[in-house]
Amino acid sequence: MSDTTNATVARRRSGWDIVFGILMLIAGLVILGDTVVATTVSVFLIGWTAVVAGIVLAVWSFTRLRSDGFWWALLGGIVLAGLGVLVLQNPGRGALWITVFIGAVFVAGGVTRVVMAFSVQIGRWLFVIGGVLSVLLGGWILVNPVAATLTVLGVLLGVQVLVEGITLLTVGRPRITSGPRPPRMA
Protein backbone atom coordinates (compact mmCIF):
# COMPACT_ATOMS: atom_id res chain seq x y z
CA MET A 1 0.00 0.00 0.00
CA SER A 2 1.50 3.33 -0.98
CA ASP A 3 0.90 6.74 0.50
CA THR A 4 0.16 9.27 -2.27
CA THR A 5 -0.02 12.41 -0.15
CA ASN A 6 1.88 15.43 -1.36
CA ALA A 7 5.15 16.29 0.31
CA THR A 8 5.11 19.21 2.71
CA VAL A 9 8.28 21.17 3.28
CA ALA A 10 8.68 23.00 6.57
CA ARG A 11 11.53 24.99 8.02
CA ARG A 12 12.64 24.19 11.50
CA ARG A 13 15.77 25.30 13.30
CA SER A 14 17.87 22.81 15.22
CA GLY A 15 20.95 23.21 17.38
CA TRP A 16 23.12 22.12 14.45
CA ASP A 17 21.56 24.82 12.27
CA ILE A 18 22.59 27.43 14.84
CA VAL A 19 26.14 26.05 15.06
CA PHE A 20 26.55 25.88 11.27
CA GLY A 21 24.91 29.30 10.88
CA ILE A 22 27.40 30.89 13.27
CA LEU A 23 30.31 29.14 11.53
CA MET A 24 29.04 30.33 8.14
CA LEU A 25 28.71 33.90 9.41
CA ILE A 26 32.30 33.80 10.63
CA ALA A 27 33.47 32.24 7.35
CA GLY A 28 31.57 34.87 5.33
CA LEU A 29 33.22 37.69 7.28
CA VAL A 30 36.66 36.09 6.84
CA ILE A 31 36.04 35.74 3.10
CA LEU A 32 34.90 39.36 2.82
CA GLY A 33 37.97 40.38 4.85
CA ASP A 34 40.28 39.20 2.07
CA THR A 35 38.40 38.94 -1.20
CA VAL A 36 41.58 38.57 -3.28
CA VAL A 37 42.52 35.33 -1.49
CA ALA A 38 38.89 34.16 -1.72
CA THR A 39 38.89 34.90 -5.45
CA THR A 40 42.11 32.94 -5.94
CA VAL A 41 40.78 29.96 -3.99
CA SER A 42 37.51 30.14 -5.94
CA VAL A 43 39.33 30.08 -9.28
CA PHE A 44 41.34 27.01 -8.30
CA LEU A 45 38.20 25.30 -6.97
CA ILE A 46 36.31 26.07 -10.19
CA GLY A 47 39.23 24.86 -12.30
CA TRP A 48 39.62 21.56 -10.47
CA THR A 49 35.86 21.02 -10.40
CA ALA A 50 35.73 21.50 -14.17
CA VAL A 51 38.60 19.05 -14.73
CA VAL A 52 37.07 16.35 -12.51
CA ALA A 53 33.54 16.88 -13.87
CA GLY A 54 34.85 16.79 -17.44
CA ILE A 55 36.67 13.52 -16.86
CA VAL A 56 33.61 12.00 -15.16
CA LEU A 57 31.36 13.13 -18.03
CA ALA A 58 33.76 11.75 -20.66
CA VAL A 59 33.99 8.39 -18.87
CA TRP A 60 30.20 8.33 -18.33
CA SER A 61 29.65 8.96 -22.05
CA PHE A 62 30.90 5.43 -22.74
CA THR A 63 27.83 4.07 -20.91
CA ARG A 64 25.83 5.60 -23.78
CA LEU A 65 28.03 4.11 -26.49
CA ARG A 66 25.17 2.52 -28.42
CA SER A 67 22.57 5.19 -27.80
CA ASP A 68 21.98 8.81 -28.69
CA GLY A 69 24.09 11.39 -26.99
CA PHE A 70 27.40 9.51 -26.77
CA TRP A 71 29.37 11.92 -28.94
CA TRP A 72 27.83 15.02 -27.33
CA ALA A 73 28.57 13.75 -23.82
CA LEU A 74 32.12 12.80 -24.78
CA LEU A 75 32.73 16.14 -26.47
CA GLY A 76 31.21 18.02 -23.52
CA GLY A 77 33.43 16.16 -21.07
CA ILE A 78 36.57 16.85 -23.09
CA VAL A 79 35.72 20.55 -23.48
CA LEU A 80 34.87 20.93 -19.79
CA ALA A 81 38.10 19.24 -18.69
CA GLY A 82 40.04 21.36 -21.19
CA LEU A 83 38.53 24.58 -19.85
CA GLY A 84 39.41 23.50 -16.33
CA VAL A 85 43.01 22.87 -17.37
CA LEU A 86 43.17 26.32 -19.03
CA VAL A 87 41.88 27.97 -15.85
CA LEU A 88 44.44 26.09 -13.74
CA GLN A 89 47.33 26.91 -16.11
CA ASN A 90 46.75 30.64 -15.78
CA PRO A 91 44.53 31.47 -12.77
CA GLY A 92 44.62 35.21 -13.52
CA ARG A 93 43.24 34.69 -17.00
CA GLY A 94 40.76 32.15 -15.61
CA ALA A 95 39.56 34.67 -13.03
CA LEU A 96 39.12 37.24 -15.81
CA TRP A 97 37.06 34.80 -17.93
CA ILE A 98 34.88 33.87 -14.97
CA THR A 99 34.41 37.53 -14.04
CA VAL A 100 33.32 38.45 -17.58
CA PHE A 101 30.91 35.49 -17.56
CA ILE A 102 29.47 36.67 -14.23
CA GLY A 103 29.05 40.20 -15.64
CA ALA A 104 27.17 38.80 -18.64
CA VAL A 105 24.96 36.70 -16.35
CA PHE A 106 24.11 39.78 -14.26
CA VAL A 107 23.18 41.76 -17.38
CA ALA A 108 21.08 38.91 -18.82
CA GLY A 109 19.35 38.29 -15.49
CA GLY A 110 18.65 41.99 -15.03
CA VAL A 111 17.16 42.37 -18.50
CA THR A 112 15.03 39.27 -17.86
CA ARG A 113 13.73 40.73 -14.58
CA VAL A 114 12.85 44.06 -16.20
CA VAL A 115 11.03 42.33 -19.07
CA MET A 116 9.26 40.00 -16.64
CA ALA A 117 8.12 42.98 -14.55
CA PHE A 118 5.64 43.85 -17.28
CA SER A 119 3.88 40.50 -16.89
CA VAL A 120 3.37 40.54 -13.12
CA GLN A 121 0.99 42.64 -11.08
CA ILE A 122 2.36 42.26 -7.57
CA GLY A 123 5.92 43.37 -6.89
CA ARG A 124 6.48 44.89 -10.33
CA TRP A 125 8.71 47.66 -9.00
CA LEU A 126 10.84 45.19 -7.07
CA PHE A 127 11.52 43.31 -10.29
CA VAL A 128 12.32 46.57 -12.11
CA ILE A 129 14.61 47.86 -9.35
CA GLY A 130 16.36 44.50 -8.96
CA GLY A 131 16.72 44.18 -12.73
CA VAL A 132 18.13 47.67 -13.21
CA LEU A 133 20.61 47.17 -10.35
CA SER A 134 21.67 43.83 -11.84
CA VAL A 135 22.17 45.40 -15.28
CA LEU A 136 24.20 48.25 -13.75
CA LEU A 137 26.39 45.86 -11.75
CA GLY A 138 26.89 43.57 -14.74
CA GLY A 139 27.63 46.56 -16.95
CA TRP A 140 30.24 47.84 -14.49
CA ILE A 141 31.88 44.40 -14.42
CA LEU A 142 31.91 44.19 -18.22
CA VAL A 143 33.31 47.71 -18.63
CA ASN A 144 35.97 47.22 -15.91
CA PRO A 145 36.74 43.48 -16.00
CA VAL A 146 40.35 43.81 -14.87
CA ALA A 147 39.43 45.93 -11.84
CA ALA A 148 36.56 43.59 -10.97
CA THR A 149 38.55 40.38 -11.41
CA LEU A 150 40.39 40.50 -8.09
CA THR A 151 37.32 41.08 -5.96
CA VAL A 152 34.06 40.03 -7.63
CA LEU A 153 34.33 36.29 -7.02
CA GLY A 154 35.44 36.81 -3.41
CA VAL A 155 32.67 39.30 -2.69
CA LEU A 156 30.01 37.07 -4.26
CA LEU A 157 31.27 34.05 -2.33
CA GLY A 158 31.42 36.01 0.94
CA VAL A 159 27.93 37.44 0.53
CA GLN A 160 26.52 34.00 -0.39
CA VAL A 161 28.09 32.38 2.69
CA LEU A 162 26.77 35.22 4.90
CA VAL A 163 23.25 34.86 3.49
CA GLU A 164 23.32 31.09 4.00
CA GLY A 165 24.51 31.57 7.59
CA ILE A 166 21.79 34.13 8.32
CA THR A 167 19.19 31.81 6.79
CA LEU A 168 20.32 28.90 8.95
CA LEU A 169 20.26 31.07 12.08
CA THR A 170 16.85 32.59 11.45
CA VAL A 171 14.75 29.83 9.88
CA GLY A 172 16.90 26.69 9.74
CA ARG A 173 17.00 24.13 6.97
CA PRO A 174 14.00 22.91 4.98
CA ARG A 175 12.76 19.49 6.01
CA ILE A 176 10.19 17.27 4.37
CA THR A 177 7.55 16.67 7.01
CA SER A 178 5.19 14.45 5.04
CA GLY A 179 4.85 12.96 1.64
CA PRO A 180 5.09 9.72 -0.23
CA ARG A 181 6.93 7.06 1.68
CA PRO A 182 9.25 4.60 -0.01
CA PRO A 183 7.85 1.09 -0.35
CA ARG A 184 8.76 -1.34 2.42
CA MET A 185 11.12 -4.16 1.59
CA ALA A 186 9.63 -7.54 2.47
From TrEMBL:
Q: Which UniProt keywords apply?
A: Membrane, Transmembrane, Transmembrane helix
Membrane as UniProt keyword: yes
Which InterPro entries does this entry report, sorted A to Z? Answer: Acid_resist_chaperone_HdeD (IPR052712), DUF308_memb (IPR005325)
| Transmembrane spans | 18-37, 43-62, 69-88, 94-118, 125-143, 149-171
Q: What is this protein called?
A: HdeD family acid-resistance protein
Species in which this protein is naturally found: Cellulomonas edaphi
